[in-house]
Amino acid sequence: MSVNTSLRSAPTRRESPTTPPQPTPTPTPKRNLARRREAIAGILFVLPTLVIFGLFKFLPIFGAGAMSLTEYSLNGDVEFLGADNYARLARDPNFWQSLRVTLLYVVIFVPFIIAVSLAGAVLLDKLVRFTGTFRALLFIPYLSSFVMAGIIWTWIFSTDGPLNAALGALGLGPVPFTSGSQWLVLASLALVSVWKGFGYSMLIFLAGLKAQPAEVHEAARIDGAGAWKSFLYVTLPLLKPVVFFVLVIETIIGFQVFDTIYVMTGGGPARASHSLIYFLFDEGFKFFDFGYASAVGVVLFVIVLILSLVQQRFFEGKDSK
Amino acid sequence: MTAVAPAPVVRRNGMEKRRQRTLTIVLAVISLFTVAPLIAVVVLALSPENAPTLPYAIPKELTFENIIRVLNVGEFPLWLWNSFIYSAVSVVIVLLTASMAAYAFARKRFPGRNALLWAIIATLMVPVQATLIPTFIMISRMGGVDTLWGLILPTLANAQAIFLIHQFIRDMPEELFDAARIDGAGEWRTFWQIVLPLIRPVLATLAIFVFLWHWNDLLWPLVVGQSDAAKTLTVGLATLNTETASTSSVMAATLISFIPCLVIFALLQKHIVASITHSGVKG
C-alpha cells in the first residue's frame, strides 16, 4: 500500500494513475518510476535481513571493539579504559598460555585432519564399487555434535576404557589420554575433532579429485609414473586450490576449539588444554569480566583475519612462480 | 595408442582387481574408526543400567529401558523440545528472510545494494565467538536470558544462507522474471510463486545445514540457557556427563540426540553430499 502512495506522489508523473500507460516520446519519467518501484521493492525485501543483521551482527561487531576498551561490569556500569584491557592481556600469563595451547592444538589438528580427509578422498576416488556406502560410513560422525563426540571419546579414552584395554593386551601401559602431557591431551582432543569433522573436508577433496581431467593421469601412467609419483606430481599440484581452501577452513575451525574441551578436560590438566575460547568463556561467564573477555574476542578475530590473509598471500606467491 | 593398449589392459585387470580389494580393506578399516564409536553408543545405551560398561563387555541382553527412562526423567523432555524449537524455528525464519534478501540482492537495483551485500558477506570473516559477549549483553538487556526467543534471535543473522541463495538466483535466466512481469505478477507473487519453488534445491540443502548447526550448537545455548527453561539438548548432555548419571543413561541421552541427525541424513544423503561437493557449505 505504502509503495503505491509514494509512487502516486511522484512529482514527475502528472496524469491520473488510472490512465492506461501510453507510449510517450520521452521515456525518462516512466523509466524513473520503474526504477524507483524496483528500488522500493528491493529495500522492502532486504528489510527483515537488514534489521536482523543490524541488531545481531553489525552492532555486536562494533560492540565487541567498543566493549574491549572498557571495564564492563555485571550491573551495567561502564568505565572507559582505553587500551588497558589489551595491556592486561599482554601481561597475563594465563592468556599467553591459552594462546600457546591454541597454536599447539592447531599445529596438531590441521595436518592431522588434512591427512585423514585427503587419504579418505583419494581412496574413495579410486574405489569402483560400494563408493556410496563407504562415503556414508566415513561421513556419518560429521552429523554428530562435538558434545556427543566428546562424550563418546571420554568413554573410549578412560583409564579402564576399551582403548586402554586394547593397548594393555599389547603390553602397553594405560595411556592417560586426557590427563597426561600437554601434547598427548591436545592430540587426543584433536583426534576427537578429526573423527567428528574429517568427512566434510573429505567430500570437498573428493569433488576436487573428480574434477581433475582423466587424461592427465592417463598421460602420467603412460610415462611410467607409479601411483605414489602420480599422486605427488600430478594429483596434488592440481588439487592445490582445494587444499588451500580446506586448509583455511580447518585452521579457522581449529582456532575456535571449545566444545570438546568443555566436555572432556575442562581446560585441564593444569590449563594444558585451556584454549583461547575457553579463556574467553571463563573471563566472560565465570568472572563476568565482560570488557576483558571482549578484548580476547577481538584478538581471536585479528588472528583469524591475519591467518587467512597470510595463507592467501603465500599461495598466490607460489602460484605466480 | 589403441595399438599398444590391449596387452597392458589384460595385465592391468588382474592388478586392478587386487588393488580394488586392497582399497576396500583399507576403507573398511577407516570406516571402523568412524563407525565403531557410534556402535558403542548404541550398545551402551541399550545395555541394562547395572551392566559393566568398562572396559567393555558385550551385554547379555539389550533393553530399551534406558531410552524410555531418560525420555521420561527430569528436564530431558524439555531440553529435547528446546533443541527442536531452536532448530526448527531458526530454519524457517533464516530460509525465508535469507531468500527474500538474496532475491533482492540478485535481481533488484536499489541504492547501497552492493555495499550492503558486501558487508553481510564480510561478516563471515568474523568468528561468532568474537561477538559472543556483546550479543549476550544485548540479549540480557532485552530480557532474553533463559528464554527461547533470546536463544533464537541472534542466530538468525546467517550470511552463509544469503550468499548461497544469492549465487543460485543470480544464475537464473532474466527471461524468467521478464515473463512474470509481463504476466502482471507483483513483486511478492513473483517471489512466492516463481523464485521460491525454483530455489527449492538450495533451500533443502540449507535447511539440513541450519538444522544441524543449531541442533549441535553448544557455546551460545550454554551462555543464554543458564537454567533449565531454555537449556538445549547439547547443554543438558554436557551437564549430564559431568554429573553422576550412569554411563547407560548418558549414552541413551546421547543416542536420542543423534537420531534426528541420522534420520535427516538417511532421507537426504544425496542432497548433503552434492551440496558439499558443489559449493562447500561451511560447517
UniProtKB/TrEMBL annotation, chain A:
<feature type="transmembrane region" description="Helical">
    <location>
        <begin position="230"/>
        <end position="255"/>
    </location>
</feature>
<keyword id="KW-0813">Transport</keyword>
<keyword id="KW-0812">Transmembrane</keyword>
<feature type="compositionally biased region" description="Pro residues">
    <location>
        <begin position="18"/>
        <end position="28"/>
    </location>
</feature>
<keyword id="KW-1003">Cell membrane</keyword>
<dbReference type="Pfam" id="PF00528">
    <property type="entry name" value="BPD_transp_1"/>
</dbReference>
<dbReference type="InterPro" id="IPR000515">
    <property type="entry name" value="MetI-like"/>
</dbReference>
<feature type="transmembrane region" description="Helical">
    <location>
        <begin position="103"/>
        <end position="124"/>
    </location>
</feature>
<feature type="transmembrane region" description="Helical">
    <location>
        <begin position="136"/>
        <end position="156"/>
    </location>
</feature>
<feature type="region of interest" description="Disordered">
    <location>
        <begin position="1"/>
        <end position="32"/>
    </location>
</feature>
<keyword id="KW-0472">Membrane</keyword>
<feature type="transmembrane region" description="Helical">
    <location>
        <begin position="183"/>
        <end position="209"/>
    </location>
</feature>
<dbReference type="InterPro" id="IPR051393">
    <property type="entry name" value="ABC_transporter_permease"/>
</dbReference>
<feature type="transmembrane region" description="Helical">
    <location>
        <begin position="290"/>
        <end position="310"/>
    </location>
</feature>
<feature type="domain" description="ABC transmembrane type-1">
    <location>
        <begin position="99"/>
        <end position="311"/>
    </location>
</feature>
<feature type="transmembrane region" description="Helical">
    <location>
        <begin position="39"/>
        <end position="59"/>
    </location>
</feature>
<keyword id="KW-0762">Sugar transport</keyword>
<dbReference type="InterPro" id="IPR035906">
    <property type="entry name" value="MetI-like_sf"/>
</dbReference>
<protein>
    <submittedName>
        <fullName>Multiple sugar transport system permease protein</fullName>
    </submittedName>
</protein>
<keyword id="KW-1133">Transmembrane helix</keyword>
<comment type="similarity">
    <text>Belongs to the binding-protein-dependent transport system permease family.</text>
</comment>
From TrEMBL, chain B:
<comment type="similarity">
    <text>Belongs to the binding-protein-dependent transport system permease family.</text>
</comment>
<feature type="domain" description="ABC transmembrane type-1">
    <location>
        <begin position="80"/>
        <end position="268"/>
    </location>
</feature>
<protein>
    <submittedName>
        <fullName>Multiple sugar transport system permease protein</fullName>
    </submittedName>
</protein>
<dbReference type="InterPro" id="IPR035906">
    <property type="entry name" value="MetI-like_sf"/>
</dbReference>
<feature type="transmembrane region" description="Helical">
    <location>
        <begin position="151"/>
        <end position="169"/>
    </location>
</feature>
<dbReference type="Pfam" id="PF00528">
    <property type="entry name" value="BPD_transp_1"/>
</dbReference>
<keyword id="KW-1133">Transmembrane helix</keyword>
<dbReference type="InterPro" id="IPR000515">
    <property type="entry name" value="MetI-like"/>
</dbReference>
<feature type="transmembrane region" description="Helical">
    <location>
        <begin position="117"/>
        <end position="139"/>
    </location>
</feature>
<keyword id="KW-1003">Cell membrane</keyword>
<keyword id="KW-0812">Transmembrane</keyword>
<keyword id="KW-0472">Membrane</keyword>
<feature type="transmembrane region" description="Helical">
    <location>
        <begin position="22"/>
        <end position="46"/>
    </location>
</feature>
<feature type="transmembrane region" description="Helical">
    <location>
        <begin position="190"/>
        <end position="215"/>
    </location>
</feature>
<keyword id="KW-0762">Sugar transport</keyword>
<feature type="transmembrane region" description="Helical">
    <location>
        <begin position="84"/>
        <end position="105"/>
    </location>
</feature>
<feature type="transmembrane region" description="Helical">
    <location>
        <begin position="250"/>
        <end position="268"/>
    </location>
</feature>
<keyword id="KW-0813">Transport</keyword>
